[in-house]
Amino acid sequence: MQSMEDDSPDVTDDHNHNYCGSSNQTYLTSQLSEVTPLHHPGTLSAPRGEPGFVRRSSRPRRTGGSKFMDSDSFSSECSEEEGTDGSTATAASAEGKSTPDLTSKFLLNAMAVEDYRNNHWPNLEKAIERLLVHNPTDHISVSYAQIYSYVYKCVCQQHSELLYMDLKSKIVQHLQQVSSQLHAVPPESFIESFNTALTKYIASLQCIVPVFMYLNKFYIESKLNRDLKQDLMDLFADHVAEKHVNTLMPLLIKAHAMPFEVQPSTMASVVIGLHSFRPDWAQLAPALFSSFIPQINPPAVESLLSDYAAHDQKLQMELSMNGFPRGDQSRKRANDDS
Fold first, then answer.
1. Which of 70-74, 139-143, 246-250, 331-335 holds the top average pLDDT?
2. Residue 274 and residue 217 in contact, taking contact as beta carbons nearer than 8 Å
3. What is the pTM of this model?
4. 63 near 82, Cβ under 8 Å?
5. Could you say which DSSP state residue 11 is in?
6. Residues 8, 9, 10, 12: what is their CA dihedral angle, to the nearest 10 degrees?
7. For residue 183, which of 90, 104, 248 has the smallest C-alpha distance?
8. 53-110, pLDDT tens digit by residue?
């Protein structure tokens, strides 16, 4: 028993039974002395007469399982105690970090736009060209799923505005070529050529609009409050129909005065198309448009019923004189007008 007491280190006991060993105090002093030389703008200097010790904070410290906290957590705690100087240092460090973040975002956006220009749009442009110039009766090898995938990626990568502008620019370029070709068409075949251009364009839109549905839904309708199909139809009206309406209208009026000089289906397609572009054009030839579109003329008046009947009889006589028989009249009642 005596030997064990001699081998034990010097330990003193105060009235609260707190044991203070000289060796433990030496160990703590030596370890803390290794921490204090790490100078930091927020580190507090040790008070005089107590080298090796630092001023303790009243708040508990979390060291994450280690005996001593690292220099970053130590300096941040000290900076909070200092007040203004520590806040300035924190703001400066935050400002220094924001600059690289903005630069990286700018570079990422630039890379995304470059990827759109080099990869996505060239593939979409080729597909649009095929859809615009193909014959509606011919088969074309275009992967609609692949086009839709490209459109989906462009919209998800925030390229909706670029894609919308590029799409319209490409279609305007095509329509300008169509208008130039119509200028070279002779008058006797101008109506048929205009109808062919209009029919092919409408057939192309029936393929283009569905594959750009994602762009239409999440950008054109939601942000622009417009519709893709109507916008593309307006492009045909602006760059083709308005350029040739002054040439087309007299030819339509002449063809309407001479029945079957132009196929009725062709006449109906052109007149209905013009009315869908600009309803005001119906006022240029009310008799022409009223033959294919209802409610162009004003409502019928009871006092003019006799005039309407005379007009119908005149039309029937003109058809009979031009070789169009009225058909079998044997089952017609005797008291009816012949």
1. 246-250
2. no
3. 0.60
4. no
5. E
6. -80
7. 248
8. 444 444 444 444 443 344 344 344 434 444 444 444 444 444 444 455 655 555 556 6
